[in-house]
Amino acid sequence: MSTIPLKKAQPAPWGLLTSLDIYGCDRTIICDAEKIRRYVHELCDLIQMKRFGECQVVHFGQDEKVAGYSMVQLIETSLISGHFSDLTAAAYIDIFSCKPYDPEEVAAFSLDFFQGKDVKVHITRRM
User: Fold this and answer.
1) Is residue 113 pLDDT above 90, yes or no?
2) Domain of 93?
3) Three-class HEC string of 75-110
4) Backbone phi, then psi, for 126, in 5-degree steps?
5) What are the backbone dihedrals phi and psi of residue 65, each rounded to the nearest 5 degrees, phi first?
6) pLDDT (tens digit per residue) in 33-47
7) Residue 72 falls inside a structural domain
8) Is position 66 within any domain?
9) Total domain count for the chain?
10) Looking at the domain assignment, is residue 19 inside a domain?
11) Alpha-carbon distance 24 to 41, whole Å?
12) Angle at 17 between CA 20 and CA 41, to 5 degrees
């Protein structure tokens, strides 16, 4: 008589990381610090994350290949960060939180906000 090993229950993830690569963004949005701050505020409201401190948005990069705004927003359950490429009109955004949220909702909202043409979504569950 053979026995079938029982699968051990998988622990719930400690946190969720969603990385968005958004291509073909509207440059008038990704090249505007106030619009990037507005995105962060609206995103936090959408996924019910409490902002901790002010959103930092800084433009830098002497080499045009990397020049653009970078953004960091601490949230009570971790952080949201991003870089926006002036040259390629792309946005690279990471949302990490130990509080659950819907990555597909985040991707759809972000694509719409930045008026992008395409988004690649990468999801990592941290154990």
Assistant:
1) yes
2) 25-126
3) ECCEEEEEEEECCCCEEEEEEEECCCCCHHHHHHHH
4) -90, 130
5) -65, -25
6) 999 999 999 999 999
7) yes
8) yes
9) 1
10) no
11) 22
12) 65
- What is the DSSP pairing of strand 118-126 with strand 15-23? antiparallel
C-alpha pair distances (Å), 43 with each of 9, 11, 32: 33, 28, 17
Range list of H helices, 10-90: 27-30, 33-46
- Domain with residue 106: its CATH number is 3.60.90.10
Q: Which are the contacts of 48, defined by CB distance < 8 A and separation ≥ 6?
A: 99, 101
> The whole model's pTM is what?
0.89
For residue 107 the two structure tokens come to 């991707």
Interval 64-83: pLDDT, tens: 888 999 999 999 999 999 99
Place of tokens 């759809």: 108
Token pair of 69 as six digits:
């705004």
Residues 56 and 96: beta-carbon distance below 8 Å: no
